[in-house]
User: Fold this.
Amino acid sequence: MSQSPLSSQLDAERAAVLERAADSVLAVETQRVRQSAFVWRGGLIVTAAEPLEGAESVRILKDGASGEAEVLACDLRTDIAVMRSAQTIGPPLAPSAASPRAGQTVVLAGRAGQDLTASWGSVHLSAGPWTTRRGATLSRRLLLDVRLAHAAEGAPVLDLDGAVLAMAVRGPAHQVIGIPIDAIEAAVNDVAAHGHIAPGFLGVRVVPIALGLQARHRLNAGRAVLIVADVAQPSPAFDAGLEIGDLLLAIDGDAVQAPDRLLGRIQGKRPGETLLLRRRRGATVDELAVKVGSRPRT
Assistant:
């Protein structure tokens, strides 16, 4: 049975996207990992961080050539790794100017060793901000209805114009997640400016206090709240007016009951971004917008 004209046109468009992206897509290998990567800008390469945890360098392959790349940063919170190669590695892929849309057709361009690979599907979900399982806040939750081979993790997610919409990574329960391009750009900017990916810093130490049922109702809180035990001076927390003894009930609208959850939210923000803290001091409950800072060098 012959293909319909519409199906043939879509096949041709997908093949053309892959052909245009081929020079910018690389394979990344260590002794235990094979995955994909792509050129972002200025000789910097991005890929998925979790498989590369602990790696200092990788082998990169493309079109019969191979070389080495240094792992500059591996941010497990966002699952973004940034690398640099001394060799000429190809042109950067252009980021999309439009936000991904549910139902939009996408192409994943990866490499298995030297060989170019492709899979295609659609955006299953494109929704507003979410928190990763390691505590980073991303601007968009992207779920992809697409097959992701192990060697294709870290591949660019492309629209039919060949622009990058996201980076494909493996999520929980066999989900395929797209890491948004603004998170990638922020990570690359951090590396370019500081040599590493700078986590957020608030300058506050907290301890949890378990609540009984009556206290939960009175405070409109969960099973625990956090009490401020120390505030660094100077720090964003001090500048915002946090004081020892304040109770922290929620962060960005979500109940916060454990110090590591608060720390994850703080470190998931980039310096300059804002956290909204719900605080109780005595009988007064208010909201504090706190601008996250950078951890001071010691």
User: Anything to note?
Assistant: The chain has five helices and 22 strands. The first strand starts at residue 25 and ends at 29. The mean pLDDT is 88.
